[in-house]
# Entry
Amino acid sequence: MKMKKILVTGGLGFIGSHTVVELQNAGFEVIIIDNLSNTKISVLDKITEITGLKPEYHNIDLRVKEDVKLFFNNHKIDGIIHFAAFKAVGESMQNPLDYYENNIGSLVYLLQEMRDRKITNFIFSSSCTVYGQADQLPITENAPVKTAESTYGNTKQIGEEIIKETCKADNLQAIALRYFNPIGAHESIKIGELPLGVPQNLIPFVTQTAAGIRKELAVFGDDYPTIDGTAVRDYIHVVDLAKAHIAALKRLINKENKENFEFFNVGSGTGTSVLEVIKTFEKVSKKPLNYKIVGRREGDITAAYADTTIANKELNWQTEKNLEEALDAAWQWQQKNKE
Ligand code: UD1
# Structure
C-alpha cells in the first residue's frame, strides 16, 4: 500500500514534534508546516535523529492565504493534523485579535483548501478548557461546553464549531481531540517542551525551580475543595497524547468514524493535585523542591480530569505511561537544556 502523506501543522512544537515521531514510527510520510513562532528549527534534526527519517519541512505562515494555496498546489495530502496555534491564556486576553487571526484564520484557510481539493481527513487540537469547571467529575464527552473563560479557550470552541459546520456542509471527516494537561518529553530526551521566558504551566516551572533557574515555585491556592486544598488536573504523558492522534487518524483513514465530526477526551483519567505533583517530582528527582503557597490564580478552576472510557473504546487507545515516568522525562529534559 502506498504510504499516506500527512500534513502536520505546528509539527515542530511540543505536541506536534512528538506526534510526527509517532506518525513516522507508524509508517506515515510526514510533511511539516511550522513558522517557528514558538519553537526552534533544531527540533527537525532531533526528530530525524530519533526516527532516522527526515520529514519534509516548510516554513509557512498559515495566516498568508496565498502561501497556503501554493503549498497545496504543490502537494498531494491524504490527511491533516492541525496543531499550529497560539496557546498562552494570559496573552490571549491582551491580544484577542491576534489570537482570532492566527487560530481561526489559519483554520479557515486550511479547511477551504481541503474542500477545494477533496481532502477529507482532519484532526484538530482542542482542549479540555472547553468544559470550564465541569459540574461532574470525571469529565465525559457529554459534559456541556461552557462559556469560554479566555480568548484562547474561545478559539478552541469556535474552531470546533467551524469544523462541525464544515463537516455538515462538505464531505469533511474530522476528529477534535480535547487534551487535558500534556507533560513530559520523548524517552530519547531529544525533544520536549521549550517554554519561552517564564513558564506559565506547572511542570516547566517545577523543573526550572529544581534546576535553580527559578527561586521557588508558587503554588496557586490551597483552599480548593480537593483532597489537599490544591487544584486538581489530569496530567498526560505527551507520547501517550501523540499516540492518540495516530489512533484518531487511522479511525478516519479506515472509515471507522461514526459521525463526520467527533470529539474525544484525551487525558490519563487520573486527577492529581499540585501538592501530589510536587511530591511525585521530589521522589523522581530525589531533590526537595522549594515552594510556597500563595493565593489562587485568577481564572483557574478547582478540578478537571477526564473520563476516557469513550476515547479508549472508540480510538482503541490507552495511556501506557504514568505520572512518575512523565515527570522523570520532564526532569531529564530540563537537565539537558540548562539555559
Ligand atoms: C492551562 C491553561 C489551559 C490550557 C492548559 C494547557 C490557564 C488558566 N489555563 O491550564 O487553558 O489548556 O494550560 O496545558 O492558564 N500552578 C501553580 N503554580 C504555577 C503554575 C501552575 O500552582 O506556577 C497550578 C495551577 O494553578 C493549576 C495547575 O498548577 O492548578 C496546572 O496549571 P497549568 O499547568 O498552568 O495548567 P492549567 O491551569 O490546567
Q: What stands out?
A: The pocket of uridine-diphosphate-N-acetylglucosamine is lined by residues 89, 127, 129, 152-153, 181, 200-202, 205, 217-220, 231, 233, 274, 297, 299-300 (CB under 6 Å). The mean pLDDT is 97. The chain has eleven helices and 13 strands.
